[in-house]
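yo

u said u wanted the structure for the complex thing, so here. seqs first:
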Amino acid sequence: MFYYNSKDWLLAIFRIPKADTLRPLIPTLIFIALYSWGIVYLEVNYLKLSENSDARNITIMHTLLGFAISMLLVFRTNTAYDRWWEGRKHWGSLVNNSRNLAIKLQVFLPVEDHGSRTFFKQVIPLYALALRRHLQKDSTMLQLDENPHPELPDFGHKVHVPNKVAESMIFKVHNLYKNKVISGDQLIVLNGEISSFTDICGACERIKNTPIPFSYSAFIKKFIFIYVATLPFGLALSMGYFTIPVTTFIFYVLASLELIAEEIEDPFGTDSNDLPMAKIAENIKGNVGEILG
Amino acid sequence: MFYYNSKDWLLAIFRIPKADTLRPLIPTLIFIALYSWGIVYLEVNYLKLSENSDARNITIMHTLLGFAISMLLVFRTNTAYDRWWEGRKHWGSLVNNSRNLAIKLQVFLPVEDHGSRTFFKQVIPLYALALRRHLQKDSTMLQLDENPHPELPDFGHKVHVPNKVAESMIFKVHNLYKNKVISGDQLIVLNGEISSFTDICGACERIKNTPIPFSYSAFIKKFIFIYVATLPFGLALSMGYFTIPVTTFIFYVLASLELIAEEIEDPFGTDSNDLPMAKIAENIKGNVGEILG
Amino acid sequence: MFYYNSKDWLLAIFRIPKADTLRPLIPTLIFIALYSWGIVYLEVNYLKLSENSDARNITIMHTLLGFAISMLLVFRTNTAYDRWWEGRKHWGSLVNNSRNLAIKLQVFLPVEDHGSRTFFKQVIPLYALALRRHLQKDSTMLQLDENPHPELPDFGHKVHVPNKVAESMIFKVHNLYKNKVISGDQLIVLNGEISSFTDICGACERIKNTPIPFSYSAFIKKFIFIYVATLPFGLALSMGYFTIPVTTFIFYVLASLELIAEEIEDPFGTDSNDLPMAKIAENIKGNVGEILG
Amino acid sequence: MFYYNSKDWLLAIFRIPKADTLRPLIPTLIFIALYSWGIVYLEVNYLKLSENSDARNITIMHTLLGFAISMLLVFRTNTAYDRWWEGRKHWGSLVNNSRNLAIKLQVFLPVEDHGSRTFFKQVIPLYALALRRHLQKDSTMLQLDENPHPELPDFGHKVHVPNKVAESMIFKVHNLYKNKVISGDQLIVLNGEISSFTDICGACERIKNTPIPFSYSAFIKKFIFIYVATLPFGLALSMGYFTIPVTTFIFYVLASLELIAEEIEDPFGTDSNDLPMAKIAENIKGNVGEILG
Amino acid sequence: MFYYNSKDWLLAIFRIPKADTLRPLIPTLIFIALYSWGIVYLEVNYLKLSENSDARNITIMHTLLGFAISMLLVFRTNTAYDRWWEGRKHWGSLVNNSRNLAIKLQVFLPVEDHGSRTFFKQVIPLYALALRRHLQKDSTMLQLDENPHPELPDFGHKVHVPNKVAESMIFKVHNLYKNKVISGDQLIVLNGEISSFTDICGACERIKNTPIPFSYSAFIKKFIFIYVATLPFGLALSMGYFTIPVTTFIFYVLASLELIAEEIEDPFGTDSNDLPMAKIAENIKGNVGEILG
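structre next:
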């Protein structure tokens, strides 16, 4: 992720950085332009359809459905944004819980217990790192897929690393309790933070391995495709060669909305818009180190 | 469920897998096409209505209501998606709580207590399996129906299996407490996870046995039906035989949205878009086995 | 409530069960049809307005506002649905908490304590029954009304039955604690379930006694009324006698959305779409009986 | 607040009670009608613009923006409704927590401790009364204003009454704990209810002293103003004198939505649509009295 | 922030205070007006395009997309508002938790322990002040940026002040527990408030350092730019010189929505619409001082 100044309009309008949807669309936009040119040429120059041809009124369909497709795509983008923001919230909670746990342990542990301090100073930030690696693995993404994945040798067999790390923390805390280093009341006070680690992991896995239902996603793409493919038929007779930029621009808008949705609905990848998990893990390391240092 | 690459447009547009809404719609689409053809033939070739006939302006109605129907369907689909996603969240919590419970028990139980470990290693994953079977039974779906169901011999009589499994876990945990294997503080720390099982079960049952209100659902279908059935009357005079693909496509869009909503609003069935409960239960088994192993 | 198969389109489109919005609307629809006929007759046959009359363009207003009214009604319906679904969630929690409480008590109570078991076996399901009766009384609905209600003799005086039942449960549990039948840790573990009963009751009362603000609700009805009443003036000149079915259908759509909203915004009545509270209470009785049996 | 039957359409359409938005709008509606008349007279009778004048097409702008303004206002109203409903929820929680606290105390306190019972019987309902008075004071509303308020002598100086009441309750409970009248487990069980009082107060203060951002609110009003003021210029040439009722009605719809939003976004005032806090406080008094009586 | 009377329409429409979006837009509005004038002059006076030119129908595109852009912007503004309101909620919780903590400590601490009282009287309000300063620093905003920031000398190195303050509070509370000034039950009762401080800090940091995804934000700006830039081409032929105010007004509406969103999506800055954190911190100081005084 890179932080941008949302008030800088010139940059947003004229620069096309790696994170922009325009880039991957360029080849398709050229194709759409050529396709529109073909349709216009066919209707206007070859078939010489009159202005009163029935074909002109095909645009009525695009008006009737223009609303449905816009709405569908805006909702789609918002659902994707909600997933992205939910992912960000979980990583925010990871920061908070790591900090809180560190602060509490710093206070609970006897001043001279350097061993436990060093242990937690290493293990708490380790969780974030392990979670990040876990979420970026293909086997996590395909966890719920019904097909076999022979291409992934570790599919379904490998150890669940974040679980292991969480387990070691819980183990340590409960040992401290058993050895009466921390009291029962303190154990209860620590419970919220400790249980939260696996909760966060599970929630992130859910976002990762469950895209929106296939039938929904496929329908939107089919809808965009047919909508744009039929657009020049109606427009050619009212706009002539203006049809070419118009169709291209309409496709750009519709496809961009879908592309943005696709990109942000999985916030745990390595795209430019994905969450800066490495950076957050680093911050956790800094915070915990400072607290338990 | 099968995991798909949401960035693969060609597959989404041109392949029509089992999970696609296009398949079940094909017969109806053919019927709509024939029906539109009939109307166009009637108006244009048989009655020979002029272009200025009042009938042409019926399209005004479709414009005025086009907005309402699109919006209604997009909201409908989103409500259904929310239910689907809520169901997914509950099964995600089931994973988290199963993991957390296993991790805590692994730490709390004395090293030599193999009996209890084996017990929980079997019973925790069993809950997910029992819940899955419970949610797929007809008697669960019809639990709140006001009509009698003589065709279901076990309707209203059978034992509630997930409850039984939860009960045995709670029973075991509290026995450990009574026998002072785990302390009162530890009991409190375990309480959240243990109570959550029946909460998850209840929430899933709610989604399963309460579809959206009948009057709402029936109204949407009536609306689509009348909207599409009257469409060719107005379009025939402005578009001629183009009315046939246009009406068919508009019906395809409206009906697809409704079909997708119907499919995903009950996420606990056996459709292709339904939640992979078997897979999740398997994962729980794997996780718990690894932790308590 | 009756469970319906949401995939059965024929039933939804052609049958008009008691729960359908079409039934209560029929007289008004006939009136609207007659009214439209009157306007068309007046403009077309009596005044013989030309096609270019200014009146024709009144339809511009309906286009400009068509969007606002559709959106308003769809939002209205969704707000009502949210209330309905919130009500359903609270009754779902009631099921969960009743189950959890029964399971925990079954485990906590000494095997030989048949008295307490019998007590809870009767009182837990009683709460659901009492709550149902409480929510269906007029005095609950009018609890926050600023007007006096001499027609309700018990208004503001009668005992709050669900409170009484909850109180007896809490009383019993705390007595068990005082008599050391259950420990302090167990008391804490039971607290969540026990407190939840009055929370659920309060939340249901809130939904029951607070409809959406009057000015909002009245505005929507006024808007529908004026919108539909002015519709034939503009349409008559472009559609002739087609105005009659068109106006009637547009009114059907708008009024249905409002009617559905009215019906489901109070989910605790006795309409066909209301929550099956009797059935849920029965299920609680079955579950609790099975657990504590 | 007065309870109304949402199914009574005649009342909603034809009666204009104090709570209706129509009343305060009447003078402005008359002004808009006169203004529209002026524009129509100017264009049609004075300037005698032809039907093909460019001015006629100004309506294109109103079509393009009609969507934006409707959507903005519907969202605005919904945001306001959410605040109103959130306020209602907090007062609902106040009822629940007051009840739960009373029930628990009734059980926890020794039978003979009449003093404490009397104390809570008075103080719990007092909180609701104090909160109501606190929320209706101008100094609460202006708490976060950056300007000085010399006209309010108590601004920023006065004692926070609800805080004082909450403090006295917490003080009493903890004294009971210190004097071992209630145990530590019971203290924990009471903590949720007791802490919730200040939480509810804070949440209500937030709704009260933070209207939606000024730039948002001012923009909506400017938008409505310019939209309606330019409307007759375009309509006059297509509708003639029909422009007058049409413009007036469009203004009525847009302004009503904004007015409703303004009225309900602060649910703690004394408007007819505001929350019946006095009534709720009275109910709390009744409930608590019945429980602790 | 300044409190405004949302019912004062004249102020909202005619005054243009610092917080209004109109101010920063004025230069761009002038530019758009000149640009539109240029296009109209070109098409109407220079090229003398006929009314039937294909160019006129470019407006079809603006109609088809007018819906998408309005919807996108309204959703954008609402997402921003949600962030603003979430920020407000967190600062509201800070007020509540500060109050609750102070009230509880006032009760728990022995009457004679002036030292601890003075400590908390200073440190609790200090947290709000430290959090405010922390959120307004550039290094907090850029925390997750992937680029280096040599211009910020303290970037990534400086001590996390709110953490330090929270740590000192937790340290103090647990010391009181260790010294048996407060009991274990009281420690548990204080835990919620104490842990919440870092949670609130983390949530505010999240809002601050994570703007909406760049690709989304950039797309909206590109869309507005192209939409408005192409608008005069189509309008010039139907509206003549009316195109100039119309294009300018449409741009004003679209850009205002985006500007408002930009301004409120980060509620922790120093804009007029940002949260009055200084004021809130002051109120916390007042409340805590009154309680612990």
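The mean pLDDT of chain C is 85. Residues 89-211+279-293 of chain C form one domain.
cya
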